[in-house]
Amino acid sequence: MPSYMLDPVQVSSGPDFSPGQPIQPGQSSSSLGVIGRRSNSELGAIGDPSAVGPMHDQMHNLQMLEAAFYKRPQPSDSERPRPYSPRNPAITPQTFPQTQAPIINNPLLWERLGSDACGTGTLFFAFYYQQNSYQQYLAAKELKKQSWRYHRKFNTWFQRHKEPKIATDEYEQGAYVYFDFQTPKDENQEGGWCQRIKNEFTFEYSYLEDELVV
User: Fold this and answer.
1) Per the confidence metrics, is the pTM higher than 0.85?
2) 156-160 and 149-151 beta bridge pairing
3) Helices and strands (H and E) in the chain: how many
4) CA nearest 155: which of 172, 134, 133, 131?
5) Which CATH architecture has domain 3-33+51-72+148-207?
6) Which pLDDT value is given to residue 108?
7) What phi and psi, each to the nearest 5 degrees, are found at residue 14?
């Protein structure tokens, strides 16, 4: 189960680092590859000594075995999705819907949101305000399809803005787009809930959430 479903995110405050500049409309970064993912040409084929070398292949095989061990099925994986339960229930007229629309649990709806440029904001809203729910899981899955990656330390989503200047087995460094989930409490507070650019940022892979496979 992804870590963000075990530890709910506090949305009252934004990411714990200096904010970057808001991204301009029309700027896209999803075609620059995925944070933490290296191409097959860099890794080499498993068992192919001509690609990188036998020692590299052996280490890669051991890393894959270790990753498989930590991602083995858990008892919680067989649990049924939790039904929606409002945090602050309010008495409404009978003309208002009294139950959640069944379509909200349909993965096809979320795939459609993920393919719509205007639907990304809805995915972020579902992720932060439908925590520990099936909707949060579906939203996260679609965000990852768009090359967004979740940072477990800062509790927010990052995407490459440019090709990394530095890329190692432990981290990568460069310019990134991240989602500022802070919501202003008053009119005088600087607005959040937008995508921002963070330059010279070091993304350590130890904070990369990679439990959700898409």
Assistant:
1) no
2) antiparallel
3) 6, 6
4) 131
5) Roll (2.30)
6) 95
7) -85, -170
Name the residue with higher pLDDT: 62 or 143. Answer: 143
Token couple for 61: 């095989």
Tell me if 116 sits within 8 A of 127, measured CB to CB.
Answer: no
Q: Note the pLDDT tens digit of each residue in 7-36.
A: 667 665 667 667 777 776 656 565 677 888
Q: What is the DSSP letter of 205?
A: G
Cα separation of the two ends of the chain: 14
CB contact set of 61 (below 8 Å; sequence gap of 6+)? 46, 47
Identity of the residue numbered 67? A
User: How far apart are alpha carbons 63 and 181 in whole angstroms?
Assistant: 34
Compute the mean pLDDT over every residue in the chain, rounded to the nearest whole number.
79
pLDDT tens for 118-176 read 899 999 999 999 888 899 999 999 999 999 999 999 999 999 999 999 999 899 999 99
Cβ-Cβ contacts under 8 Å for 104 (sequence gap 6 or more) = 84, 135
Residue type, 5: M
Residue 167 to residue 96: CA distance in whole angstroms = 53
Task: Report the distance separating Cα 63 and Cα 66, nearest Å.
Answer: 5
Q: Which amino acid belongs to residue 116?
A: D
Residues in the chain: 214
Q: Where are the domains of the chain?
A: 3-33+51-72+148-207
